[in-house]
Task: inverse folding
């Protein structure tokens, strides 16, 4: 049986006001068995894990109208991206553009040197412990933030 670890990543950067008027969420499923296999590998390599990102948008109508354009833009920063879907969260009274894709985990950080993807991970062993590091590409993050702001919020 595969053990899974589910992370909900809400980057600390958000609390600093990068997305002044919108929210970004990411959900990633990581298999412990696959992490162990990656660490045991003698070669530098990476593996992919399923991920979901959600960008808060100004409303359902705007989301449906512009989701193709936004999805195309955001997909440049995801691995194997899917089609964007508009999600209404009636409890929070918010609308999100949700996109499925994959994120990469590598066993050598040098493999991420020229990586443009929004989020990636590296794993390594230190002091007999398995460590997993989150890499948030700030250029990709700022680019998506600015694009979302321009396309969804400046029209209000």
Result:
């Amino acid at each position: 049986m595969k053990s899974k670890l589910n992370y909900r990543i809400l980057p600390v950067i958000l609390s600093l006001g990068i997305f002044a008027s919108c929210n970004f969420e990411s959900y990633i499923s990581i298999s412990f068995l696959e992490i162990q296999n990656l660490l045991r590998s003698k070669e530098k390599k990476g593996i992919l894990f399923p991920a979901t990102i959600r960008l808060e948008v100004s409303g359902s109508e705007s989301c449906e109208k512009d989701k193709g354009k936004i999805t195309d833009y955001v997909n440049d920063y995801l691995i194997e991206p899917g089609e964007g879907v508009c999600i209404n969260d009636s409890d929070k009274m918010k609308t999100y553009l949700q996109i499925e894709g994959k994120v990469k985990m590598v066993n050598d950080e040098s493999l991420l040197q020229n990586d443009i993807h929004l989020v990636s991970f590296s794993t390594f062993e230190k002091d007999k412990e398995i460590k997993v590091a989150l890499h948030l590409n700030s250029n990709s993050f700022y680019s998506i933030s600015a694009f979302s702001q321009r396309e969804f919020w400046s029209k209000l």
About this structure: The CA atoms of residues 88 and 94 lie 6 Å apart.
